[in-house]
Structure formats: structure tokens, C-alpha cells
Amino acid sequence: MPRYAYQPFPYVTPPELLGGRAERPPVIIVGAGPVGLAAAIDCALHGIRCVVLDDNDVVSLGSRAICWSKRTLEIMDRLGVGERMVEKGVTWKVGRLFHRDREVWNFDLLPEAGHKMPAFINLQQYYVEQYLVERAMAFPDLIDLRWKNKVVGLAQTADDATVSVETPDGRYDLAGDWVIACDGARSGVRAMMGLDFEGRVFEERFLIADIEMKADLPPERWFWFEPPFHQGQSALLHKQPDDIYRIDLQLGWDADPEVEKRPENVIPRIEKVIGHGDFELDWVSVYTFQCRRLARFVHDRVIFAGDSAHIVSPFGARGGNGGIQDVDNLVWKLALVVTGEAPRRLIDSYDEERVHGADENILHSSRATSFMTPKTQMERIFRDSVLELAGEHEFARRLVNSGRLSRPCSLAGFPLQTACSSDGGVQPGDAALDAPVEGGWLLDHLGVGFAVLAVEAELPADVSDGLKRVVVARAPPFAHEGVTLTDSEGLVAARYGAGLVYLLRPDQHVAARFKNPTRADIEAAWLRARGGSQ
């Protein structure tokens, strides 16, 4: 198949430079990568206008982020591109771990049936960005995509933020209520504000090589510790669409990135991995392990998301997935604040919850790095002993760490969630679980706002009209005003617990769980979840 054909997006002179009166946007998004585009689409779904500014005019060069997790795919499905991503991507759920030439363990990330989205897909970032751009263009009245618009200045007041923007036609200022900085690990917005990351840079470098080749390899994740073809180091192999394969090779801290990226040095390394030279290089990069973040993600009217807020090593697929989950957490809160339906302090909960998410990702990433690239004698003894035991002993397999793969973090215990005393089901703070219902899937029916979900239970008759009501039962659902779904396979009740009622946030996390709630119970939890009195 042909390699990806990059097509530049058209530059259009901004209205601010045409002498007309431009309408002030509530939200300005800096960066049109996956995180910024997802934020823009989510804003549109909530009826909030935004302007997206990007200094480039094409999708990302190279595959970059490729592993997209089940939770991220569910978010992308809500945004309107999930099914398209799965159709194009390489679906996988099995990982195999090797020590030298011996397989020590394999795992299945989604051993049960009854989920719309797979455990993971591999799909190059340029496809993801293309699909998101095309989806964003379906909202011309709400999303203003501006290519070749580089943010070069930033100022804030108590009520707004203003960015200075350079274009091929000159410079202009754009003011908005809020700025979301999604401009990546080398964030210009972060630099303009004099902010820096806190955390650790590991003394380790890895080579990424995307190669095009014909091969009959299964869609699995293969990771080697000290493989025969790359002695003393580690390696990773992943299959992508279009006959593209991702190979990661540990290089060591002393490696010169520019030298290592030269084809005459890359090609012999790849030949040792795959055993032949019948391939073509598609993209090459060298990266350094980092596990760092900003101390805070919210700085008055400027909010950081994705790699502009935090960076982790790529093993575990926590970078791109974490960024999508950032804006999934943020945008509904921002929409409520912009429309005056919630106090401004609701934005502070984004900082609390996603700093927690970033710290969880950094912890897993740091532990994986220490296991993969031991730097002390004790770390190496531990790693080698675990790998030796893992082939025969279950307890040792749980200690093998080639990157704990991305999962949604729990928000249990944070202020927006209401504690509960009932047992079973999905815990407050956890992401909602999908399950089949007659004619479709549960998550598809939750919408973009708050919802009350009753599983084999009745809702109070006077539940607020501001809440979407969804009742699921095995038999024909109870009579009520709202969506009625048949639990055709019984998996909704199995996963959520029969007789329980849930308040679900717009990001599909559980805000509260009840047994026989009154209207007052639901209303109090709803108010709490919107940053009201607690």
C-alpha cells in the first residue's frame, strides 16, 4: 500500500486582519494535535465556540503516538471518530514478553466479550489527526481551525486571556475567556509563561523506527529483554496499518541521537531484528525517557493539557491516551463555567483530578523504566530474578514490567464524587463500563451531559429534566420518561449490579451510586458534581 500522503490544509487570512469585526471566542485552543482537536470537537458538542491555532498546516510527521486504549477509543467514539479509528487500526489485546530467546509470559488485556471497543488499537497519529480534523470541519459555526497561525505572545487579566498570533499575512491579537494549551512537549505557551516541568529525566535513549515490509506477523505486542539480536538492551515490535511496523531499540545514554538516526546506522540494527533487509524506512526518531509534569495545570485563564502539561516515557502508551483523557475531563467543566451553569472553581477540579492522573501515569512509567533499564546492581539482580522465575511462577509474572499499559485512573475520593455505602457495581470515580444492550451499546446512549442510569431499578418520578434518564432491565424496562434499554445479554446488570442507580458525569465517570435514591439524593450529588455546595 502507498505510504501516507500528506496534504496541507489551506491557510485563510484571519478576520482580525481583514478589517472586519471578529466575534470573540469563549475558548482559544493552541495546538491542533489529537489533544487540541479532541478538545475543539468536545467544545462543539457542548455548544461552545472555539478557535484552534496551529503553527503548521499538515498532520504530524511520522507515526508518533500509535497505541490507543479502550477508554480513549470510547472517548473518541463519543466525539464521532472512534469507529473510524477501529476500522483502520490494527486491533490487538495480546502481549508477549521474552527474555533473550525465551518467552516468559503472555497476557490478554480484554479476556471477556461484550465490549464495543477493543483493548487497544495501533493507528498512526497522522490518521487520528486527519479523522479529527475532518470531524471538526463538520462544526463550521463552532470550530474555527486556523492553520499557519503561530502564537507568539500571551497576556491575561482577571476576565480573559489574549494571544498574539503571527500569520503569513501579519500579526494580530485574539482575546477569549479561556486558553487551552495543547501545544505539546515543547509548549510555546508554557515557555511564554516561564513555567517548567518538575520530575525526572532518565539517562536512557531509545530509537524508534517505522519500517514498511510485507510480513505475516500476528497483531500482538512483543517485548524483549536482552534479545539475541540486541544484546544487553531491550526491544519492542508493534504492527501498524499499511504494512508499517514499529520497532523500538534501547541505545543507552551515550548514544548520539543525530548519528543514530542516520539510515546507514539504523538499517543494520533493523536487519538484525527481523532477519532480512527486505524493508524500507518510513520514519526514524530518537527519544529520551522523561517523567515530568507542571506543578499545576490551571494558571488563571490558561489551562494546560496533554504533553504541554506532562510527559512520560512511551512504554505503556500513557502519553497520547493521557492527553485525550485530560480534555475529556476538562471540556464539560469548562462548558458549564462558560455558560454560567457552574462556578469557576469547577475548573480547579480539573487540576486536582488530572494532576492525580498524571502522577499515576508517571509512577507506572518510572517503575517500568527502572525495570527495563536497571541502573544499579540491585535493580539488575531484581529484574533478572523476576524474568527467570516468570516462566513458571504466577507471582513473578505480575512483577514483569515492560510498561504497565494505559488504563483510566479512578477519581474516587475527589470532591466531585459522592461517597456511597452500598456494595457492588461500579465505584464512584471509576469510568463507566460499556455493555451490549438490545440494538447497540450502553455508552452510546449516555449523551454528552449528566445522566442518571438505573439498572433493574426505578427512578424517582420527579427527577430533574436537566438529567438524562436511562433505565436498563432484562425484561421490558420500567415505564418512565427517558431512554429505555433492554439488557439483552444480562451484562449491564452483571457489571453494574441489579437494583442500583448511578449519576454519571459528562465524561462518563461515576459521580454517585445509590440504592433506592430519592430525588433529593440525586439532586445533591448532581450539585456536588458541578462544583456546588458539598
Structure explained in plain terms:
The structure is a single chain. The chain is α/β, with parallel strands linked by helices. Helix content is 27%, strand content 27%. The strands form six sheets. An eight-stranded mixed sheet has the order 6-5-14-15-16-13-17-20. A hairpin with a 2-residue loop joins strand 21 and strand 22. Helix 1 packs parallel to helix 4 (125-136), helix 2 packs across helix 3 (82-88) and helix 8 packs antiparallel against helix 9. The longest helix is centred in the C-terminal third of the chain and has 27 residues, at 346-372. The radius of gyration is 24 Å and the shape is globular.
Give the overall shape: globular
Mean pLDDT: 91
Q: What's the total number of strands?
A: 27
Fraction of residues in β-strands: 25-35%
Which key phrases capture this entry?
globular; alpha/beta; 534 residues; 27 strands
Summed up:
This protein has helices at residues 34-45, 70-79, 82-88, 125-136, 188-192, 257-260, 263-274, 319-338, 346-372, 377-390, 394-397, 491-496, 519-529; strands at 27-30, 50-53, 67-69, 90-92, 94-99, 102-108, 120-122, 143-146, 150-156, 161-167, 170-176, 178-181, 198-212, 221-225, 234-240, 244-250, 280-293, 298-299, 302-304, 310-311, 436-437, 440-441, 451-455, 468-473, 483-486, 500-504, 510-515. It is of the alpha/beta class and 534 residues long.
